[in-house]
């Protein structure tokens, strides 16, 4: 006889149902509280660059490019204008001081010189005539005074006789007064004549002084015009290489126009362009170096040009120990310009990541080596090889330093 079995609560169906529910609940709890919800991106390890953070001396320098220039360049400007009649030297030729380079012609200058010279000759003649007239007047004065002295002597004798005779009442008072007036008139006439001649002589001397002054000024003008005419012959002011001369026969040159330049070959310097970002840190006296023919040569900034053009300013650097032998004008070379002394720092190699993050964060590879996580950092100075790390990284950290252009905003990269 069959008997009824008791009904069990934990049937297979219920066990399966409760097991699935528990699994689903656990998965939900894990997802809510423990799962990594950060955005992820799978990348290929061989297509990225991973660099190690290290500790070492940070050399504060920048890489710039310098162009070799003569230590001194002399501008060749036309002192006077005119048209070119002869061109005796071409650009690129070595010239000596005083060597004739060009000959100019200027008819107006020649005419002015002749007019000034003619005026000087006229003044010379006037001066000679005035001096001759003064000598003649002196002779005339002497002769006139000599005649008056003779007349005065004769009149005095007559006056003295009349004075004696009138005391004896031998002559009339009228004769006495006539002799007296004749004598006094001659004396007064001589005095007037002497004063007149003195005035004439002083006036003549003043005229001579004025003529002499005018003549000196005119002669100086003649000398200046002569020098001006000599300036129509353009000569090399110094010895060196005539790097350029931008005129041809028949061309017209204005006064002050630049017609070329001469390079002093006794020394060279480097003209260097520097990014305007460093303008506050660059000053005269900073050192640098560059390589030429396998050797390293020292450089020192001698002059800073503060004018900024197209985001760059220029400096001149000289060779404190002498320029390399064989260096040529116009050569360009990379230069290592030191901005400060080396100091110990945490170093991160330079890479393309900076253009995408501005140096504010990087991807750091974790210990498993299977993923890289975004981390905020702070960078300081930069040289062509390293960034100075101020915060966020430790020596030994592995950092992706290649470009982040294709990583988007993902926080985790999985390899």
From TrEMBL:
InterPro entries: MdtA-like_C, RND_pump_MFP, UPF0194_transport
GO cellular component, one term: cell envelope
Residues annotated as domain Multidrug resistance protein MdtA-like C-terminal permuted SH3: 346-403
The family this protein is said to belong to: Belongs to the membrane fusion protein (MFP) (TC 8.A.1) family.
Name listed for the protein in its UniProt record: Efflux transporter periplasmic adaptor subunit
Lineage: Bacteria, Pseudomonadati, Bacteroidota, Cytophagia, Cytophagales
Coarse class of the protein's main subcellular location: other
GO molecular function (one): transmembrane transporter activity
Record carries keyword Transmembrane helix: yes
Regions annotated as coiled coil: 117-165, 189-235
Keywords: Coiled coil, Membrane, Transmembrane, Transmembrane helix
Subcellular location: Cell envelope
Pfam families reported in the protein's UniProt record: RND-MFP_C
Keyword Cytoplasm carried by entry: no
Alphabetical list of PANTHER family matching this protein: BLL5650 PROTEIN, EFFLUX SYSTEM COMPONENT YKNX-RELATED
Transmembrane annotation, as ranges: 15-35
């Amino acid at each position: 006889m069959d008997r009824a079995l008791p009904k069990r609560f934990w049937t297979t169906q219920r066990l399966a149902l409760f097991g699935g529910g528990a699994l689903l609940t656990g998965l939900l709890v894990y997802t809510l509280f423990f799962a990594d919800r950060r955005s992820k991106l799978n990348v290929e390890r061989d297509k990225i660059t991973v660099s190690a953070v290290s500790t070492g001396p940070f050399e504060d320098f920048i890489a710039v490019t310098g162009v070799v220039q003569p230590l001194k360049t002399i501008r060749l400007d036309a002192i006077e204008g005119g048209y070119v009649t002869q061109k005796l030297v071409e650009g690129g030729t070595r010239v000596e001081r005083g060597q004739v380079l060009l000959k100019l012609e200027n008819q107006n200058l020649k005419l002015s010189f002749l007019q000034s010279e003619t005026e000087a000759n006229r003044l010379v003649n006037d001066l000679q005539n005035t001096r001759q007239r003064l000598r003649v007047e002196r002779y005339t004065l002497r002769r006139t005074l000599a005649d008056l002295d003779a007349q005065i002597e004769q009149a005095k004798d007559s006056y003295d006789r009349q004075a004696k005779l009138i005391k004896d009442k031998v002559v009339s008072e009228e004769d006495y007064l006539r002799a007296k007036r004749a004598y006094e008139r001659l004396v007064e006439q001589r005095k007037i004549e002497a004063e007149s001649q003195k005035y004439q002589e002083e006036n003549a001397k003043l005229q001579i002084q004025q003529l002499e002054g005018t003549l000196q000024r005119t002669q100086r003008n003649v000398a200046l015009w002569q020098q001006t005419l000599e300036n129509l012959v353009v000569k090399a002011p110094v010895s060196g290489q005539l790097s350029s001369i931008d005129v041809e026969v028949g061309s017209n040159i204005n006064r002050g126009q630049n017609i070329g330049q001469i390079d002093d070959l006794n020394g060279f310097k480097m003209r260097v362009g520097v990014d305007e970002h460093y303008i506050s840190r660059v000053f005269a006296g900073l050192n640098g170096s560059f390589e030429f023919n396998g050797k390293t040569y020292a450089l020192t900034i001698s002059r800073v040009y503060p004018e900024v053009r197209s985001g760059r300013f220029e400096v001149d650097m000289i060779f404190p120990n002498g320029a390399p032998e064989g260096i040529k004008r116009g050569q360009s070379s990379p230069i290592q310009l030191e901005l400060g002394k080396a100091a110990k720092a945490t170093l991160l190699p330079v890479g393309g990541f900076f253009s995408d993050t501005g140096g504010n964060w990087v991807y750091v590879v974790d210990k498993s080596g299977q993923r890289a996580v975004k981390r905020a950092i702070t960078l300081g100075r930069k040289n062509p090889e390293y960034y100075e790390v101020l915060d966020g990284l430790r020596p030994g950290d592995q950092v992706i330093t290649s470009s982040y252009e294709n990583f988007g905003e993902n926080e985790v990269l999985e390899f």
